[in-house]
Amino acid sequence: xxxxxxxxxxxxxxxxxxxxxxxxxxxxxxxxxxxxxxxxxxxxxxxxxxxxxxxxxxxxxxxxxxxxxxxxxxxxxxxxxxxxxxxxxxxxxxxxxxxxxxxxxxxxxxxxxxxxxxxxxxxxxxxxxxxxxxxxxxxxxxxxxxxxxxxxxxxxxxxxxxxxxxxxxxxxxxxxx
Length: 177
Hints:
The chain is mostly helical.
């Protein structure tokens, strides 16, 4: 997963150097939506019914914000830093699971989160240098992706994964027009 994430960052970085991030987002999610069409045609459009459309709308808005920040950050910082800061998302997911979903988390996971945040601080400020704009944008994207993941967990209680993925893809495409 780490290798694929790094490869995606490298590819997207090259594209965002030439195209506006919202153009890249639009095409990425449009093709994702088109890739889902055979599945939808095979299973029927009824699979897209959801219990709470507002939750899917909110999740897609949050995810779009995270993606926009990420895509704006990509051309501004080295890929290694992008990838490392992107790995802070699970730390924010854990915090959200504790404080929003009220899940029980063991001591080992709490220690891992603390160590992860210390590592993030080392990446951001290994000395007395100023934190770059790209690093700030990347770091702001992580809690938004975490929120999107937590919202996905909530909507998955009532809706199919196909509906969740399809609605996210369609809505992000629309938001980026």
